[in-house]
Amino acid sequence: MDFTFDTEQHALREAVAGLLQRAYDPEKRRAVTKDDPGFDEKVWSQLAEMGVLGLPFAEEDGGMGAGHAEVALVATEVGRVLAPEPFVEAVVLAGGLVADVGTAEQRAELLGPLSEGSSLLVFAHAEPGNRWTPTATGVTATRSGDGWTLSGVKEPVPSGARADVLVVSAAVDGGTGLFVVRGDAAGLTRDGYRSHDGTRAARVTLDGTPAELLGEDATDRTAAVELALARATVAYAHEAVGAMETALTTTSEYLKTRKQFGVPLSRFQALTFRAADMYVSLELVRSIALWATMVVDAPDSTPEQVLAAADRARLQTSKAGRHIGKEAIQLHGGIGVTAEYSVGHYTSRLTAIDHLLGDGAWAADRLARTVDAHPYVEALPA
Amino acid sequence: MQLHLSPEDQAFRDEMRTFFTTQISQSIRDDVAAHREVTKESYVEAQRILNAAGLAVPHWPAEWGGRDWTPLQRHIWREEMQLAAVPEPLAFNASMIGPVIAAFGNQEQKERFLPATANLDIWWCQGFSEPDAGSDLASLRTAAVRDGEDWVVNGQKTWTTLGQYADWIFCLVRTDPTAEKKQRGISLLVFPMDTPGVTLRPIELLDGGFEVNEVFFEDVRVPAENLIGEENRGWDYAKFLLGNERVGIARVGATKRMIADAKEHAAQISSGGRPLIEDPSMRTRITELENELLALELTALRVVSNSSDGKPNPASSVLKLRGSELQQAATELLVDIAGPLSLASFADDDATDVPEWARSTTPEYLNYRKVSIYGGSNEVQRTIIAGTILGL
Ligand SMILES: Cc1cc2nc3c(=O)[nH]c(=O)nc-3n(C[C@H](O)[C@H](O)[C@H](O)COP(=O)(O)OP(=O)(O)OC[C@H]3O[C@@H](n4cnc5c(N)ncnc54)[C@H](O)[C@@H]3O)c2cc1C
């Protein structure tokens, strides 16, 4: 086991950090998230130029052939400045599904443009009646001639109104299939709106909408969805770690500069001890996130191991995100709940991440089913 | 010791319940229950109905609209009002400046302000906090200098809740910058918000709402008769006022209502093929919250029955501390029940299939971070408990 990054990975981190930190300070982020699509198209193109949007895809599919360690580095930098670009949503989740399930032709056709920043791909999966399931029931797929049509509602779909192409999960005979829907398809209605964290989501209504099957066969893709969600969860854990780190440094900085009773707040141990506890939470979740990334990247990991690692990362992220998010606001006092100051937006994004793909209690319930299957949890596989 | 409500108190509770659920319009109560923004007009309408029935300021002296109720009856009144989602009488009026004027104002001030304050003919806002004077309120710098028959006020207040609706502000100002102790040189001034030299800047909060403001004073002339009580004794009045503020702040009834809503919603949400309310960990979590809330309510009843001298009990800090934590826990519970639906936060009705309650959960959760900050932060409450009660 080795937690360190190599020189190339460090260089990637520096480059992405440089780009995103130039692009976003709290004020610029507020300005960018005010208007649709809720992120900066220019930054998205710059990330593409850097190769970031194709990181995990094979070179023959138009990607960089990197691993999830690189994805983790990028996600951390995204979280650090709360960059509103849908990196995890488009690249890790939607792109990951196409990479896993798509035919060679589909991979080239969808992942190339995604990597180049010319086509935004998102996964339309959540349904108002479903809660963090890997299956679809509200949208159904029907054969129609050579192709398929989809009907039903997906919501909330991150960046769903802005997306150029959607990967849509839908009920097929025998399970959940995956389909590709173009943004200009007939019978597709998208109602976009703002989420509390400044990003955009949408209701996507499909009404006999023509769709292309993703992959060769109309078989059940639940397992593929589950795996893609797990990888996205691990990437979100890193995004959350980046956000928590900034929330903590912002708070520590504030304790040093804000004066009450004639002294800086950092003179009150009642507060500095709580900052210390935030640090403990941060380092613990960082460790689990890195470990989960190693599990995802290890060639011999089974899907079950990846899913379990993602759930462990999710549980820790949820706990730490709530702890750090709440304390960061509380230790700031009134300024912490304002939209004009940065720290509360970190709490808002952490709350969003917690509820996008499954929260801590949900992960704990899943993990709890396996407590008697092992005497203890093995961190280091042989 | 006696568990049951007496027949009189039982009748009193029924009377309150009937009044609140029949006399205050359903649409206003729906807005409160759904955590929608309550308009100024709705606040005013509700408070005037309450006031006409003698239910707006029961804790005031009888001659100014108070009622000769027992502490238990006051508790029932507040609880029933919160359970019925009635907008409570504006705290700045009913719990803050009203009792201060009643206790420390002169006869002329009482006659001039108290009836209008009870009836919300004057909407008050609280000008205490300043950018550099939050927890350390006594370090406030807004200055009032005597010039003939006027005080001339210069400085800045901040976090002024609903200042945009306010007709008048009650303001702590420094009148004696040379006082040895900084608490000594402070006075309480009241003046209209449209006095020349008063300007307002709204502050946006995390939920996108504008409920607080910065208020700036530039050579604001305030007639000397608008000083409440004695010059340089404003700190005593502020302490009296903040103690009153804390008593109502446990908001047990409001939290009960949120938990009841949460259970209803959890029954409607399907999780893993069954209603979320059937999930054992969800049930455990709700149970723990309910138990904490029961303990808090009982403590509120116990503390209230101990403080019949009208002075706030230092144990009211317990109510503020835990009351705010439980309100926050209830808002967090609602976010978790909404789950992925909580992401549709700012969708318009016609752009979403997500029910309104689920959309409002996270903005509300973020907004409620405030309740452990204002009214004396929870750190300040711990300082009071440690110092005043435990002698540490
Ligand atoms: C939504 C909202 C509405 C408000 N409405 C009003 C209003 O209408 N009128 C009004 O006058 N004010 C209002 N306030 C202001 C409120 O009373 C202050 O925010 C509060 O007093 C805290 O002050 P501060 O924000 O400056 O934080 P600070 O005092 O700077 O405190 C920052 C952090 O340090 C902690 N801290 C400070 N000193 C100590 C210490 N000695 N020991 C341990 N911890 C300490 C605090 O608890 C807090 O966690 C409102 C605030 C909010 C958020």
Automatic annotation (TrEMBL), chain A:
Keywords (A to Z) from UniProt: FAD, Flavoprotein, Oxidoreductase
Domain Acyl-CoA dehydrogenase/oxidase C-terminal: 229-359
UniProt cross-references to InterPro entries, sorted A to Z: Acyl-CoA_Oxase/DH_mid-dom_sf, AcylCo_DH-like_C, AcylCo_DH/oxidase_C, AcylCoA_DH/ox_N, AcylCoA_DH/ox_N_sf, AcylCoA_DH/oxidase_NM_dom_sf
Domain of life: Bacteria
One term of GO molecular function: flavin adenine dinucleotide binding
Coiled-coil features, chain-numbered ranges: none
Family, similarity comment: Belongs to the acyl-CoA dehydrogenase family.
The protein's name: Acyl-CoA dehydrogenase
Organism annotation: Klenkia brasiliensis
TrEMBL record, chain B:
UniProt-recorded Gene Ontology molecular function terms: flavin adenine dinucleotide binding; oxidoreductase activity, acting on the CH-CH group of donors
Cofactor(s) in the UniProt record: FAD
Keywords: FAD, Flavoprotein, Oxidoreductase
Domain Acyl-CoA oxidase/dehydrogenase middle: 125-220
Occurrences of domain Acyl-CoA dehydrogenase/oxidase C-terminal (ranges): 232-388
Gene Ontology terms: cellular component: plasma membrane
Family from the record: Belongs to the acyl-CoA dehydrogenase family.
Name by which UniProt lists this protein: Acyl-CoA dehydrogenase
